[in-house]
Amino acid sequence: MSTEERNAAFARAVADCRAAMYRVALGMLRQPADAEDAVSSAVIAAYTHLHRLREPGALPGYLMRCAVNACHAALRRRKREISAENMEIYGGTTYEPDSVWSYVHHLPEKYRLPLLLRYGEDWKIEDIARTLKLPKGTVSARLSRGLKMLKKELQEEV
Q1: Sequence-ordered list of residues with C-beta below 8 angstroms from that of 129, at least 6 positions apart, any chain
Q2: Which residues lie closer than 8 Å to 106 by C-beta, 6 or more apart?
Q3: FRET label pair with 142: which of 27, 92, 103, 127, CA 20 to 30 Å apart?
Q4: pLDDT tens across 111-157, in order?
Q5: CB neighbours of 1 closer than 8 A, spacing ≥ 6?
């Protein structure tokens, strides 16, 4: 594949995946500006290391993995930069208050991220496992536990 073809395929993949990357980043970071920054960083990182990708069909998963990595980096920076008394500013959500997604948003990340990818983005368990670098059984267990936690949260609300 020539450089021009690879760049064109990359641009198409970014156009196709950008909205999903943003939704996942927003679910992890909870702030629209931070999510946009993470997606931009992920696209730059993916393009910089595009030569490492052997299978062009794996590009959407690779982009999502880069987005998740960028979110983790942003969370690490945020933890170092924000004092404990200012932490409540980041507890707000951009989801509708009565939406199920607002409840998903409050779950621990290890459950929230698989739920966002599976039910928000309609990914298969195998793709989630590959992207998060987890065994399929772990992804299934986290989905199950996350759904149980979500159900309990919703029942307490009623």
Answers
A1: 135, 136, 138, 139
A2: 153
A3: 92
A4: 988 998 898 888 999 999 998 899 999 999 999 999 999 888 888 77
A5: 9, 56
Name all domains of the chain by residue range, CATH numbers in brackets. Answer: 1-93 (1.10.1740.10), 95-158 (1.10.10.10)
pLDDT above 80: residue 97: no
Distance (Å, rounded) from C-alpha 93 to C-alpha 26?
9
Q: Note whether 104 and 116 are within 8 A (CB).
A: yes
Asked if 115 and 141 count as a contact pair (C-beta separation under 8 A), the reply is: no
Cβ neighbours around 70 below 10 Å, total? 26
